[in-house]
Amino acid sequence: MSNSALPADSEEPPSSARLHSLKAFQPAGRGFWADVSAPDWNDWRWQLKHRITKLEQLERLMPTLTPEERAGAVLVDHKLAMAITPYFFNLIDPADEQCPIRRQVIPRLEETDTAPWEMSDPCGEDSHSPVPGLVHRYPDRVLFLVTDRCAAYCRYCTRSRLVSNASGYDFHPEFDRQIDYIARTKTVRDVLLSGGDPLLFNDEKLEYLLSRLRAIPHVEFVRIGTRIPIFLPQRITPELCSMLRQFHPLFVSIHSNHPRELTTEARDALGRLVDAGIPLGNQSVLLRQVNDDVEVMKAHVQKLLMCRVRPYYIYQCDLIAGSAHLRASVRKGLEITDSLRGHTTGYAVPTYVIDAPGGGGKVPVSPEYVLSRNNDRVVIRNYEGKIFEYPETTDGQPLFKAPVRFEEPDLR
Ligand SMILES: *Cc1c(COP(=O)(O)O)cnc(C)c1O
User: Fold this and answer.
1) Complete domains list, the chain, with CATH
2) What is the pLDDT of residue 397?
3) Which of 233, 329, 346, 348 has CB atoms 3.0–4.6 Å from 265's, for a disulfide?
């Protein structure tokens, strides 16, 4: 057999050593908690109970804490609480002040800086809430906030006004009122459970909520937005998965930002969800010195596919008060998007969006592929920058009228 159709070995693109190492699956392991028993370590309630929430714990575990971080940890009681699961804490590199994991969960003094264009409710959610805890922005779907608690708190949280209740928002969802609104609003065919993190509920409470939603005939589709597989993979138990699979079609959107978050533990937890028939998507936030790098993003989206997760969105970081130090430019977001499309698997390419400030919803922002367009033709460029023309067609009327011959199907 001839091999002439196959590329020669020498034509293989040189594999970047950095890309390769970013994509390697590593366990988070027991780390600082080497003396904890395996049953305790693998118990999600143990992980929650032993979260790092206080400055004293941080200082003990991380002597390399910087003055900016120490000052940040002092103010968390008034802004957004600090919480880091022991599992996730083990992913931090204490020797690296710019560790991409560290920047996401350890508070910093810069959180007190608020630019004039920053807001406490950057996506105008409260003004789109027909009942508390329900955001109805798009005609056919609603965002259903079920709790203000998460396993760990992201320092750039777009919902920090209510999440963790550190600033006294006092969020108390009233499931009856929320479900009643969905039941009497027949245009709602898609319900997105979020918060806070819905998977923090125990199985019984989640099952109750999902059953009530599933009892509404016009609710076709339910999804859960969660960072639990990344912060607390121990929560994804076989029991949880067999409970969830009763409610299909059920999708789950996870939130991972950096390839190092995709540990062997996270991959296994994600695998359990997929094996329960739940399609998984990922939503990343573009963050400065976390993932605002072409190679990091490429490794991340490819590694997500290896976990059977489809990259769904990359969000431009919302204009949440105190997040400027974590925000990357739209220019950088476009550069990253352009570096992915065509250069890697189409399934690996998420849509880059800006959630419009004030409440316009998600707006896709895309590099220019259409260079010009008129009634006669469209001029496009491909991922390599090569230019092509496509003749425009008047809808319903072919440019060239070919004789049409209708052939009777032969039914004998
Ligand atoms: C993101 C979001 C949704 C879901 O949007 P999709 O593009 O369908 O994923 C629904 N409602 C609100 C308020 C949202 O912010």
Assistant:
1) 23-112 (no CATH), 126-364 (3.20.20.70), 370-403 (no CATH)
2) 64
3) 233
